[in-house]
């Protein structure tokens, strides 16, 4: 167990340690890695580690004999003694027991109030490619003239190919001597060049126009995704679905849709010209056309409808596969420790099976269509040949030669054009899905020019006025009618039980979630009137899960790249990060993997804290920023924060009381409501305060 209890409040921590680790797991060998030193006297053996080596191993009593270890333990004990937590008042505990049963609670956390899943079902998002999508893809971004130009050019290319056949026929006809050898070569070559230039212009022109369109769409999608609100979009949308849009859907638009449009125009021009040549030869061929057209329309309607559904299923089936794969990779350690590899392989296999099944249906459908198209073209070929044989005395033998030459490829051309048409429809499903991304909810205005923001916030006063917050319209109110004022430069500690709403206060201040009612004012300005980016760049937040990015250590400490190395190193030394920097020859250039995979949780937190300190903002929010840091380093960090943020307003959320005991005031939060907000020493003097009862409980805990 790798420090699983660090972010819990001490009631929960104690209950988990006693009931689970010492209760349910009794009889098993248990190895607990932890910063929670208050439990050391209850374990069989303690292993003290330093710099990757075991420094000492022994029981709690044995360990007392080593001066050095005793010193470490004393420091730990001293801090543990200071550590206190909030005991919920008895009434609330009672309410808790009566209110919701544990499994109901669990259910609630997965379901919204209406009893539906938080995430929207992707299957419900049925997409029919209507004329609107065609209009948006073809017409909205390019005018009619654009397509008329390309279609005319394509017809010219097809005409050149057919004429080339006729001229070549004339040339090899021994009875015709109208043309000299060189004139025929010249004409034939010119027609071939015209045909290839026409095809090149058509395909290149359409490619360029499509690339321009899809690039713009991709950029717009990225902008929309970047500005989508966390609570209303990311919480509701599985990451696999978003990744699917940016991989499979975008890939279809980038790789192929342009070629398909070009080919469809070229192939249909060829098909039309083949029919024209046949009609020139034997006008009776035209009599077959209505039948062919009717057959084609029926087949295409049936095929395109089914193909569209299969394509939709294909796209939808990709999202769970990506989700599950992501979960499997990220949760590899947990899966292995529970010996659930086989189960995950089986589930992955099942999901993959759906994806490949869809592939099979797609190919079957293609074959079904191909066989029927073969019949249609054979019907046309048979009729034309029959007519020609019957009227062979009147027909032009060269035209017959050209026609048969063309007809060998006719069925292929017809099949190819129809399949391209249905593939295009499939790609347009992806285009439509991408268009839908442009309609996702957006955060309010990012930037807003306001002259008073020049030196705002100069003081750092924060006022909550009748402030309430809901994560989503269909969920419960999490922060309830908050009314309090934080004075400039004050250092505030925020405490409360797990789920009390502490982290939500940080989200509210940065407007990650907008207010449901009431307002927050910073230095007298209602934050909801500001541009969101303007607000966020003036507030520093160290979240509960430290986030690092792939790149160098320097980039992670100073993403904007404005702070000189000397300053970075000076601050790193102060924050106890010097050893970490020097462990690699590259120093500040050492590589950080994505998400900080190559660092310990404490190191990640330290880097995040240092990044925050270097930003030097007037308002700083720290959410359990030091939960995974050892107590000695935490003390160094506390000192550093005290020095560096002397002129800033600092809100510190912590479950360790020693982290906030020296704050100017402590805000005690319970179920989204402010219970107490006062000087911690004063609260400790008041026997009725929640703070006091907590301290009492801790005392009892120590005496045990
Ligand atoms: N994204 C979310 N969507 C819906 N409800 C949420 C979301 N995040 C948090 N909540 C709910 O809001 C309440 C407060 O959560 P919050 O994260 O603020 O608690 P906390 O006090 O920071 O707890 P902890 O000490 O465990 O970090 C909880 O009941 C939680 O279930
Ligand atoms: Mg929290």
UniProtKB/TrEMBL annotation:
<feature type="domain" description="ABC transporter">
    <location>
        <begin position="462"/>
        <end position="696"/>
    </location>
</feature>
<feature type="transmembrane region" description="Helical">
    <location>
        <begin position="261"/>
        <end position="280"/>
    </location>
</feature>
<feature type="transmembrane region" description="Helical">
    <location>
        <begin position="179"/>
        <end position="211"/>
    </location>
</feature>
<keyword id="KW-1133">Transmembrane helix</keyword>
<protein>
    <recommendedName>
        <fullName>ABC transporter</fullName>
    </recommendedName>
</protein>
<keyword id="KW-0067">ATP-binding</keyword>
<dbReference type="InterPro" id="IPR017871">
    <property type="entry name" value="ABC_transporter-like_CS"/>
</dbReference>
<keyword id="KW-0547">Nucleotide-binding</keyword>
<keyword id="KW-0472">Membrane</keyword>
<dbReference type="Pfam" id="PF00664">
    <property type="entry name" value="ABC_membrane"/>
</dbReference>
<keyword id="KW-0813">Transport</keyword>
<dbReference type="InterPro" id="IPR050173">
    <property type="entry name" value="ABC_transporter_C-like"/>
</dbReference>
<dbReference type="InterPro" id="IPR036640">
    <property type="entry name" value="ABC1_TM_sf"/>
</dbReference>
<dbReference type="GO" id="GO:0005524">
    <property type="term" value="F:ATP binding"/>
</dbReference>
<dbReference type="GO" id="GO:0016887">
    <property type="term" value="F:ATP hydrolysis activity"/>
</dbReference>
<feature type="region of interest" description="Disordered">
    <location>
        <begin position="83"/>
        <end position="102"/>
    </location>
</feature>
<feature type="domain" description="ABC transmembrane type-1">
    <location>
        <begin position="148"/>
        <end position="426"/>
    </location>
</feature>
<dbReference type="InterPro" id="IPR011527">
    <property type="entry name" value="ABC1_TM_dom"/>
</dbReference>
<dbReference type="InterPro" id="IPR003593">
    <property type="entry name" value="AAA+_ATPase"/>
</dbReference>
<feature type="transmembrane region" description="Helical">
    <location>
        <begin position="369"/>
        <end position="391"/>
    </location>
</feature>
<feature type="transmembrane region" description="Helical">
    <location>
        <begin position="144"/>
        <end position="167"/>
    </location>
</feature>
<dbReference type="GO" id="GO:0016020">
    <property type="term" value="C:membrane"/>
</dbReference>
<dbReference type="Pfam" id="PF00005">
    <property type="entry name" value="ABC_tran"/>
</dbReference>
<dbReference type="GO" id="GO:0140359">
    <property type="term" value="F:ABC-type transporter activity"/>
</dbReference>
<dbReference type="InterPro" id="IPR044726">
    <property type="entry name" value="ABCC_6TM_D2"/>
</dbReference>
<keyword id="KW-0812">Transmembrane</keyword>
<dbReference type="InterPro" id="IPR027417">
    <property type="entry name" value="P-loop_NTPase"/>
</dbReference>
<dbReference type="InterPro" id="IPR003439">
    <property type="entry name" value="ABC_transporter-like_ATP-bd"/>
</dbReference>
<feature type="transmembrane region" description="Helical">
    <location>
        <begin position="286"/>
        <end position="304"/>
    </location>
</feature>
């Amino acid at each position: 167990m790798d420090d699983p209890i660090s972010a819990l409040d001490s009631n929960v921590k104690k209950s988990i340690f006693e009931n689970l680790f010492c209760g349910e797991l009794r009889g098993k060998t248990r190895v607990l890695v932890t910063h929670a030193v208050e439990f050391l006297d209850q374990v069989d053996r303690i292993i003290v580690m330093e710099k990757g080596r075991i420094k000492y191993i022994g029981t709690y009593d044995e360990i007392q004999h080593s001066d050095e270890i005793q010193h470490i333990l004393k420091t730990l004990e001293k801090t543990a003694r200071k550590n206190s937590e909030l005991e919920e008042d008895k009434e609330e505990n009672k309410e808790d027991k009566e209110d919701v049963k544990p499994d109901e609670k669990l259910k609630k956390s997965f379901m919204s109030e209406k009893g539906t899943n938080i995430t929207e079902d992707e299957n419900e998002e049925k997409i029919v490619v209507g004329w609107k999508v065609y209009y948006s893809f073809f017409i909205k971004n390019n005018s009619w003239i654009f397509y008329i130009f390309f279609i005319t050019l394509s017809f010219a290319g097809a005409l050149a190919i057919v004429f080339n056949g006729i001229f070549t026929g004339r040339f090899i006809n021994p009875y015709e001597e109208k043309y000299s050898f060189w004139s025929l070569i010249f004409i034939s070559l010119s027609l071939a060049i015209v045909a290839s230039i026409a095809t090149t212009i058509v395909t290149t022109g359409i490619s360029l126009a499509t690339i321009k369109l899809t690039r713009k769409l991709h950029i717009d999608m990225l902008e929309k995704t970047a500005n989508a609100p966390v609570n209303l979009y990311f919480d509701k949308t599985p990451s696999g679905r978003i990744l699917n849009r940016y991989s499979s859907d975008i890939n279809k638009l980038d790789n192929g849709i342009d070629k398909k449009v070009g080919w469809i125009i070229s192939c249909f021009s060829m098909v039309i010209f083949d029919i024209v040549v046949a009609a020139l030869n034997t006008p009776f061929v035209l009599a077959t056309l209505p039948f062919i057209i009717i057959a084609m329309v029926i087949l295409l309607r049936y095929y395109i409808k089914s193909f569209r559904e299969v394509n939709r299923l294909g796209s939808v089936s990709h999202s769970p596969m990506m989700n599950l794969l992501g979960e499997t990779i990220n949760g590899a350690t947990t899966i292995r420790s529970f010996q659930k590899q086989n189960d995950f392989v089986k589930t992955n296999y099942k999901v993959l099976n759906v994806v490949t099944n869809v592939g099979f249906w797609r190919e079957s459908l293609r074959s079904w269509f191909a066989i029927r198209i073969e019949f249609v073209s054979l019907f046309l070929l048979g009729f034309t040949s029959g007519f020609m044989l019957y009227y062979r005395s009147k027909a032009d033998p060269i035209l017959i030669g050209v026609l048969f030459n063309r007809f060998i490829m006719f069925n292929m051309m017809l099949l190819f054009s129809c399949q391209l048409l249905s593939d295009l429809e499939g790609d347009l499903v992806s285009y439509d899905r991408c268009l839908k991304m442009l309609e996702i909810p957006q955060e309010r205005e990012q930037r807003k020019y306001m002259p008073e923001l020049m030196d705002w916030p100069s003081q750092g006063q924060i006022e909550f006025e009748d402030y309430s917050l809901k994560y989503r319209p269909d969920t419960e109110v999490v922060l309830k009618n908050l009314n309090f004022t934080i004075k400039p430069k004050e250092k505030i500690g925020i405490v409360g039980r797990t789920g009390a709403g502490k982290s939500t206060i940080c989200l509210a201040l940065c407007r990650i979630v907008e207010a449901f009612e009431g307002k927050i004012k910073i230095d007298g300005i209602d934050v909801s009137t500001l541009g969101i980016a303007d607000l966020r760049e003036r507030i520093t937040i160290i979240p509960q899960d430290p986030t690092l990015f792939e790149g160098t250590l320097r980039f992670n400490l100073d993403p904007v790249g404005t702070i000189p190395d000397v300053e970075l190193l000076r601050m790193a030394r102060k924050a106890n990060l010097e050893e970490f920097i020097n462990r690699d020859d590259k120093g500040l250039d050492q590589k950080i993997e994505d998400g900080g995979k190559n660092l310990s949780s404490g190191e990640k937190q330290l880097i995040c804290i240092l990044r925050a300190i270097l930003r030097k903002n007037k308002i700083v929010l720290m959410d359990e920023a030091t939960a995974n840091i050892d107590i000695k380093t935490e003390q160094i960090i506390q000192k550093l924060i005290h020095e560096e943020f002397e002129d800033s307003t600092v809100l510190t959320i912590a479950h360790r009381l020693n982290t906030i005991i020296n704050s100017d005031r402590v805000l005690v939060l319970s179920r989204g409501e402010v219970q107490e907000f006062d000087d911690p020493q004063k609260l400790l003097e008041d026997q009725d305060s929640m703070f006091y009862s907590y301290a009492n409980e801790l005392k009892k805990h120590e005496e045990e």
